[in-house]
Amino acid sequence: MIDHHIKYQQSCPTPADSSEASTGYLSKGIGGLALSISGLLAASSVHAEYGINFPEPAAGVAREIYNIHMLTMQITTVLLIIVFAFVFYSIYFHRKSRGFEADQNFHKSWFGQWSWVIVPVMVLGVDLTIAGKADAVLKKVWEVPKDEKLLDVKVTGHQWWWEYDYIDSGVKVESRYIPEEESGDLYLREVDNRLVLPTHTKIRFLHTSADVLHAFWVPELAVKKDAIPGYITETWAELDREGVFRGQCAELCGTWHSRMPIVVEAVSPERFAAWTEEQKALKLAALAEASVDKQWSMDELMERGKTLYDSKCAACHQITGLGLPPAFPALKGSPMMAGPIADHLDIVINGKPGTAMQAWGTLNDLEIAALVTYERNAWDNNTGDVVQPADVKQAR
Amino acid sequence: MSTTTLSHDEAHHHDAPKGWRRWLFSTNHKDIGTLYLLFALTMLFLGGASAMLIRMELFMPGIQLVDPDLYNNLVTNHALIMIFGAVMPAAAGLANWMIPMMIGAPDMALPRMNNLSFWILPAAATMLILSFVVPFFPGGGTQINTGWTLYPPLSVQVGMSMDFLIFAIHLLGISSVLASINIIVTLLNMRAPGMALMKMPMFCWTWLVTAFLLILVVPVLAGGVTMLLFDRHFGTSFFDAAGGGDPVLFQHLFWFFGHPEVYILLLPSIGVLSHVIPAFSRKPLFGYNSMVGSMLAVATIGMVVWAHHQYTIGMSMGAVTYFMIGTIIISIPVGLMIFNFIATMWRGSMTFETPMLFAIAIVLMFTFGGLSGVMLAVVPADMQYHDSMFVVAHFHYVLMPGAVFGLFAGVFYWLPKWTGHMYDERLGKIFFWTNVIGFNITFFPQHFLGLAGMPRRIIDYNVMFTEFNVISSVGAIIFGLSHLLLLYIVIKTIRGGKKAESRSWEGAKGLEWELDSPPAFHTWTVAPQVK
Amino acid sequence: MSAEAHSGDYYIPNPSPWPIIGMVSLLVTLMGAALAMNGVGFGTYLVIGGLLLFAYLLYGWFRDVIGENLSDCYNKQVDTSFRMGMFWFIASEVFFFLSFFGALYYIRVIALPWLGGEGYLGPTNEFLYGGAFVPDWPSAGPAELGGGFTPMGPWGIPAINTLLLLSSGATITWAHWGLKVDNQKQLVWGLVATIILGLLFVGFQAYEYIHAYSALNLTLGTGAYGSTFYMLTGFHGFHVTMGAIMLMAILGRAMKSHFSAHNHFAFEAVAWYWHFVDVVWLGLFVFVYWL
Ligand code: HEA
Ligand code: HEA
Ligand code: CUA
Ligand SMILES: [Cu+2]
Q1: Domains and CATH numbers, chain A
Q2: Closest-lying ligand 3 atom to the alpha carbon of residue A157
Q3: A354, B232 Cβ separation under 8 angstroms
Q4: Which of B 65-124 lie inside 8 A of C, CB atoms?
Q5: Chain A neighbors (3+ CB pairs < 8 Å)
Q6: Phi-psi region of B192 (alpha: psi -120 to 50; beta: other; left: phi over 0)
Q7: Of A59, B16, C27, C168, which has the highest C-beta tally within 10 A?
Q8: How far is Cα C252 from Cα C192, in angstroms, rounded to an integer?
């Protein structure tokens, strides 16, 4: 499993060209309709597993929640059957066509007099049963256990990717969706870098957001919490089995809300420790590379720039650089590309408050240099400018 | 007071004014009621058209028809148009038509203001539709991709169409508040002599409570969107943590309005049922007093449980426990209402005309939706349900049966009274069956989708969710097309049909059935005496 | 159906063009505002045009109502309808203000302590603001939006304004007493005094705003404090202005002897409104300026 995810991490894929998807929709729509009918016929053979209930829980808390869900579902089913039974009995027997005479005094019987007490008391009984059980579960679920060694993971939602910071080890993972061509049947359920977590360890998730609201949701863990910019919300989980658990962003966050999958990879604590070391080493290597005092060639920068651009920027500005105006400006042919390099660096490093364009200042100098060089020369922008890491350092 | 015969204007005791002035300048509750209903029908089709586009897009995984922002724009508009454009005006239309007739009043208490509250609606609809189309013009900014809840900061990112929407909401608010004032005053001040409050027809009671709710919560929504407007344009930071505000504050303001709003949608339909079920069971409503009591309880408790829409924002355990118990408790009064309906049918002598069919469907399916609401109210479990398709299934199960079907039942029940013609019963039954079956095929599978992990408000989904989405979309086509039949039946009835008697239904009771079908332009110019 | 004497006399006005004009004026104004706020030039003209139309509408509508009243079309029941209508209108206004008071409460009592590291979202301060943010009120938030500022104390202009509004409440009651005994002079002078006090209030508030902007660096952009301060006082000031305009209209009618001891709903409606504005101010004084 680990190998699999490392593979994705290194070869950043090219996101689907969505501007293509939105043009010519009429023919596509009709085609889609036809396709879907044939698809329906063949459906069961293509992917047999489709759930009608929560997936198998993978954490103690999730198990509790699963149980309370099943309990309330059973209670409500019974209530529903009772209501249906009375209504259908009445429809069948108390109908005019059977010659049934209306009992005009039914509401004056003792039952009619007292039903306004009897019914509420009975309903209250059921309500309290549900609330009591729920309260017991709530006590276990709600508050993060205190005074324990917790693994802190800060989960930051971005438009439209997730950032996972392992606070203790300093490891940072950026997690993005993988386009359909590469992810196939797992499209929208698979990411380039997974959230790797150890089993049998209490984990505290600290949720926050860099821009708008998002929500972290993995059904097997039964954590769902909103990510609110400027605030931290907490949840916790203790995974009890290894495996890959998939979820999605559950709070509407704009254009590509549907493209924020979350994939948790639960591994044994030992493998987790090994993985952490590996990540630290990778990070050091990248830093070292960025800080060497070297003049980078245009080709080197362009190559790195493209990889970075396609993974980090293309969600909005598109692979083609055409953007999705008016929401996301085109970079191809934009006056800024031919204008002063300082302005260009400024918007990339500091972003533009109040828009979806965030500050990318956490990228290292080399990465930003590569990005800016790439943008200024790709898609026929051909300015010939080469921006070096040193320039970025100065601009910060 | 001195007598007023002198100043009585000739016109208003005679025939209806003619031509366009009759409609534009109307001060007649029946004409204004008709305007409301026609407006609502138009909006039902607009909102329905966007629903159809939503379902077509979700038919298959992948992005086929619309781009993602347009999808969310459609979802936003669908919800707002359905709730503010279709359901609320339709309920207000019924109120305008029926309340004066039911309580023996010559008209609404404030007839000119009545006309104003109606005519603000087309203005609001214009702004709402502009907010949808403005982004398609050059320089029109981005589309509204926030959903009807308009949560910031996303709603701060949106371009100028959001301002059109905010103002549309202001207009809708003004319209509802004025209409509510009118209804309250009419009910409190205009009842025929002898009609004590506790003798008032149940439909009037439901509207009295609804109008109170509207007056209390709509201004809060207006305040909330005003703050949003200021955050967007004037640098305030109500919803921005950097300045000490909190995005969640908006959610509180929205749901302080939003949750009572769902009972605003529900109650008028409950009122309709309280007339339809006794009429076709040929026996009085079971538990009039407990009905009034539970309604008041629903309204009161409903005002203080709003945060069950926000369990996932990070609330303390005390707070969530309170909101959970409050929410679950609402099942008591609502359960009592449902029970009263069943007890009214029980040992009745039932026949099954279209209004009654809808009524029975409501009792069964609204209960189903309400019960899934109770599941949602359970905090730990809502950690899984929240913002998934399960919620979408829940609220369509309460909104369609609880609000829309109730309005359908009312329309079929009172159409003979309004038009003087019986509608085509056979077509009515066909409409009922296609409608109800289509509805269930559309929304039942969405429960499974939600449980299996499909979030709401996504344009594109993984193949594992295909089957149920296909079923749901097919159901939506059946469901949508069935509404064309409704249109046909209504038009046909207006244009002709079997003559309706003044008491159009054997078991119908109440003052309105003592008037001709159709009633004269001005009715109850002499107030009836109620024993 | 037996006839009952008075209900049949209920006055139903003739078809009227004013509601439609109202609709058009609102639509034009708001559409213009939406455009103007986004830098579309002609929006401003639409706003001006819409507001003029709205003023015309108010003039025309009230002219009709006054005419009907003077020609004795209304009976007791109509009068009651008007009164109830006004009462529930003010009730809706109360809830409008409550949303802003609610926002103030939420920010001060719930949100700021969270940002400062207390309560359920306590970790916020540690992880996002390095434990450095102290949530004292007044506050412009962790980022100190709008920069340093001086808050508005209660004992200068606000205290004077409180006195002004309270005495205006007294003068309008005095006018009402005059009206009740058909003392025309007392009515008119009571109203004049109320209007003057109201205008003084608005004047002082305008001065306060200018002072805050120019000397205290307290603006709309001054974080949560500036936002709530201007929103609450601003909407209140707007209501005082509206109330003063309504008082002037009533004064005009009083001078034309429109009111009698028994028939003066319009006067009472405005008086209620004025008292409502008064009470809201007390809330403001306590929660915005003082505490
Ligand atoms: C007409 C509209 C309507 C009505 C009547 C209701 C009724 C109820 N709703 Fe629903 N709801 C909505 C419209 C409505 N809702 C909408 C639109 C949303 C989503 C908004 C959005 O996010 O966009 C929503 C969302 C929503 C949520 C938030 C879910 C989430 O986002 O995570 C919750 C959670 O508690 C909830 C609960 C309830 C409950 C407990 C009731 C109760 O009133 C139901 C009471 C009825 C019954 C219980 C059935 C009858 C009773 C009996 C037969 C007696 C026996 C019963 C028991 C003992 C339990 N609703
Ligand atoms: C009273 C309110 C109301 C009503 C009546 C409806 C009616 C319908 N809704 Fe609505 N819906 C909401 C309120 C309502 N909805 C709300 C509040 C939301 C949440 C929005 C948000 O997330 O922000 C929502 C969201 C919502 C979604 C979820 C979108 C998402 O989360 O991604 C879906 C998807 O299936 C949906 C479908 C439908 C359908 C198929 C109908 C059908 O009932 C519509 C049937 C009516 C017609 C179809 C009209 C009449 C017929 C024609 C126009 C003829 C043409 C017909 C054809 C071409 C077939 N709705
Ligand atoms: Cu992130 Cu939705
Ligand atoms: Cu609710």
Answers
A1: 60-101+110-142 (no CATH), 151-285 (2.60.40.420), 292-395 (1.10.760.10)
A2: 1
A3: no
A4: 105-107, 109-113, 115-116, 118-120, 122-123
A5: B, C
A6: beta
A7: C168
A8: 10
CB contact (8 A) between residue A230 and residue C127: no
Q: Please, what is the Cα angle at B87 between B276 and B382, to 5 degrees?
A: 100
- Collect all residues of chain C within an 8 Å Cβ-Cβ radius of residue A154: 127
The CA B400 to ligand 2 mean position distance, Å, reads: 10
pTM score of the predicted model: 0.91
Architecture in CATH of C1-74: Orthogonal Bundle (1.10)
Whether the CB of B331 is below 8 Å from some CB of chain A: the reply is yes
Gap from B124 CA to chain C (nearest CA, Å): 8
* Pairing assessment for the beta strands A161-166 and A202-209 based on DSSP bridges: unpaired
Task: Report the residue from B312, B346, B367 with minimal CB separation from A94.
Answer: B346
Report the nearest atom of ligand 3 relative to the CA of A227. 1
3-state secondary structure of A217: strand
Instruction: Compute, in angstroms, the gap from residue A67 CA to the centroid of ligand 4.
Output: 24
What residues form DSSP beta bridges with A59?
Answer: A239
Contact (CB, 8 A) for C229 and C289: no
Beta bridge partners of A172: A165
Q: Give B 27-86 residues with CB within 8 A of chain A.
A: 56, 59-69, 72
* Chain A residue at shortest CA distance from C112: A231
From CA A241, how far away is CA A59, in angstroms rounded?
8
> How close is the Cα of B446 to the center of ligand 1, in Å?
16
**Closest CA–CA distance from residue B336 to any residue of chain A (Å):** 7
3-state secondary structure of A163: strand
Domain ranges of chain B: 29-200
Q: Which residues line ligand 2 (CB under 6 A)?
A: B 44-45, 48-49, 51-52, 54-55, 75-76, 78-79, 82-83, 87, 147-149, 392, 396, 399-400, 403-404, 442, 456-457, 476-477, 479-481, 483-484
Least Cα separation, residue C46 to chain B (angstroms): 14
Q: Is the pLDDT reported for residue A25 higher than 80?
A: no
Which overall architecture, per CATH, does domain C76-290 show? Up-down Bundle (1.20)
| Helical packing angle, A60-93 and B331-345, nearest 10° | 20
Contacts of C116 in chain A (CB under 8 A): none
Residue B143: phi, psi to the nearest 5? -85, 160
Q: Residues B67-120: pLDDT tens digits?
A: 889 999 999 999 999 999 999 999 999 999 999 999 988 889 898 999 999 999
What ranges in chain C are assigned the alpha helix state H? 18-37, 43-70, 76-105, 112-115, 123-128, 157-180, 184-214, 223-255, 265-284
In tens, the pLDDT along A111-169 reads 888 899 999 999 999 999 999 999 999 988 888 888 678 899 999 999 889 999 999 88
Contacts (Cβ under 8 Å, ≥6 apart) of C44: C32, C36
Could you tell me if B509 and B434 are in contact, meaning their C-beta atoms sit under 8 angstroms apart? Answer: no
Enumerate residues with CB within 5 Å of ligand 4 (an ion). B 259
**Residue indicated by tokens 């609320």:** B88
C15–B26 C-beta distance less than 8 A? yes
**Mean pLDDT score of chain A, rounded to an integer?**
82
With a cut of 50, say whether residue A5 has pLDDT above it.
no
Instruction: Using the structure block, give the residue that is written with the tokens 């469901």.
Output: B479
Question: What value does the mean pLDDT take over residues C116-123?
Answer: 84
B515: contact with C, CB 8 A cutoff:
no
CB B284 within 8 A of CB B278: yes
Q: Which two tokens stand for residue B121?
A: 């609606």
Over residues B320-339, the mean pLDDT reads 95
Q: Which two tokens stand for residue C128?
A: 């996002």
Higher pLDDT, A325 or B12: A325
- Asked whether the beta carbons of A372 and A336 are under 8 A apart, the reply is no
